[in-house]
Design goal:
Blueprint: E1 2-6, E2 12-16, H1 21-33, E3 37-41, H2 47-58, E4 62-65, E5 71-74, E6 88-89, H3 94-105, E7 110-114, H4 117-120, H5 125-134, E8 137-141, E9 145-151, E10 160-162, H6 168-178, E11 184-189, H7 196-203, E12 208-212, E13 218-223, E14 232-234, H8 239-251, E15 256-263, H9 270-277, E16 282-290, E17 293-301, E18 309-310, H10 322-331, E19 335-339, H11 351-361, E20 365-368, E21 372-376, E22 387-389, H12 394-406, E23 411-414, H13 426-432, E24 436-439
Parallel strand pairs: 2-15, 3-14, 6-7, 10-11, 18-19, 22-23
Antiparallel strand pairs: 1-23, 1-24, 3-5, 4-5, 7-9, 8-9, 11-13, 12-13, 15-17, 16-17, 19-21, 20-21
Bound molecules: shikimate-3-phosphate.
Length: 441
């Protein structure tokens, strides 16, 4: 699919964004492990989350979508999944693949996992290594990539896993395996990563201990083999999706936007801190808690943004927001330096390269090394006028469509169907609030 974003005017209105992708995956996976039926409202119905739902169905979990849009998951209890009779295809979704590997480690049968071209090129060693220590065995393609086969066990060993790089996916995989182990499983992170798994496990009745460590790290210890109780889960809007609307509105003169019901878990809001440092006035209103997750309405108007320096330690709190932050930096006054970006190289695409190449094509001067990006802001609309390949990466596609709205000349994005993985309806929602995104084919 090819989309073209034409230069547009103000971005205004009152809207909500689809459900949080990370919370949606976890809602399905943990509800599946509960003893009884759970209801999920606000679930993201994007391709990534639907891949998790389909995989769970293949593993024997009954999951229904009710006509009003709520989902019902009939949990099978910890260790209750059944051997699937075909490979599980997880499409573009790294979270589905890695979290499922954790769950499958506690089940004594063999499952084959595969995905699209992008997912088949992503590293799985980071989950395979700890899960092997817990007792699972793996046969994977070279470089520990998909397709792979995992064979789990009922004789799981609880472990202590010290992460070199903070990763919520790896942490969650180990904790989901640890659910099945007799004893305590601990994950130590160098910096705290998103804690949706911990919050939801706590909500469903698992025993968890969380300790802040000297030097900024965190350790999470789960007591295995709990009986998880079913629950009503309300998924907040995805702050990573809201990010595209926020930047579009901040940089389009005359904008006034309110996004309602957005998840504002402090481990996800690094972008809001950066935008404030750049000069944005973002107001949070109607702050509340939903199923253990903080949510709020975010209100903002256009602002004059200046360049920013983002510290490497902030990266886990905004890991998915660098593409859109780089667009804000490209339009801001002055230079921005984004540090701590090594992990961007193993996302749905090599995002560091994709951002740098895309900005250059749009007439923005950039410099990059292995783990940082410097963007020379244009102090107003960048030239634009480029053709951008989304590289199987939804966030690259959406970021450059936002840039098209702010540029002097239209930006065309090929491979834009990938937006469906996290933000169904992105183009029509953007157009409703003032963007001019055209579907070309
Ligand atoms: C996610 C964690 C992050 C993020 C991904 C979703 C999750 O990945 O980039 O989009 O739901 O746990 P890492 O944990 O690998 O940093």
């Amino acid at each position: 699919m090819k989309l073209r974003a034409h230069p547009a005017g103000p971005i205004s209105g009152v809207v909500s964004v689809p459900g949080d992708k990370s919370v949606s995956h976890r809602a399905l996976l943990l509800a599946a492990m509960a003893a009884g039926a759970s209801r999920i409202a606000g679930l993201l119905e994007g391709a990534d989350v639907l891949a998790t739902a389909d995989a769970l169905r293949d593993l024997g979990v009954e999951i229904e979508r009710e006509p009003a849009g709520e989902w019902r998951v009939h949990g099978v209890g910890t260790g209750g999944l059944g051997e699937p009779d075909r490979p599980l295809d997880l499409g573009n979704s790294g979270t589905s693949a890695r979290l499922l590997l954790g769950l499958l480690t506690g089940h004594p049968f063999t499952t084959f996992l595969t995905g699209d071209w992008s997912l088949r090129s992503r590293p799985m060693a980071r989950v395979i290594e700890p899960l092997r220590r817990m007792g699972a065995s793996f046969v994977a393609r070279s470089g520990d990539r998909l397709p792979l086969a995992v064979t789990g066990t009922t004789e799981l060993l609880p472990i202590r896993h010290e992460q070199k790089v903070a990763s919520a996916q790896v942490k969650s995989a180990v904790l989901l395996a640890g659910l099945h182990a007799a004893g305590e499983t601990t994950v130590v992170e160098p910096e705290p990563s998103r804690d949706h798994t911990e919050r939801l496990l706590g909500h469903l009745g698992a025993g968890l201990t969380i300790a802040e460590l000297d030097g900024g790290g965190r350790s999470v210890t789960l007591t295995g083999q709990p009986e998880l109780r079913p629950a009503d889960i309300l998924v907040p809007g995805d702050v990573s999706s809201a990010a595209f609307l926020l930047v579009a509105a901040l940089l389009a003169p005359g904008s006034a936007l309110r996004i309602e019901g957005v998840g504002v878990n402090p481990l996800r809001t690094g972008l809001l801190d950066c935008l404030r440092e750049m000069g944005a006035g973002l107001e949070l209103g109607h702050e509340r808690e939903q199923t253990g997750e903080p949510a709020a309405d975010i209100e903002l108007g256009a602002a004059r943004l200046v360049g920013v320096e983002t510290p490497a330690e902030r990266a886990p709190r905004m890991i998915d927001e660098y593409p859109i932050l780089a667009i804000a930096a490209a339009c801001a006054h002055g230079t921005s330096t984004l540090a701590g970006l090594a992990e961007l190289r193993v996302k749905e695409s090599d995002r560091l390269v994709a951002i740098a190449a895309g900005l250059e094509a749009c007439g923005v001067e950039v410099a990059m090394d292995d783990s940082s990006l410097t963007v020379h802001g244009r102090g107003g609309p960048p030239p634009g006028g480029a053709l951008i390949d989304a590289r199987h990466d939804h966030r690259i596609a959406m970021a450059f469509l936002v840039l098209g709205g702010l540029a002097r000349k239209p930006v065309t994005v090929t491979g834009a169907e990938t937006i469906q993985t996290s933000f169904p309806g992105f183009a029509s929602l953007m157009n409703r609030i003032g963007a001019r995104i055209e579907i070309l084919e």
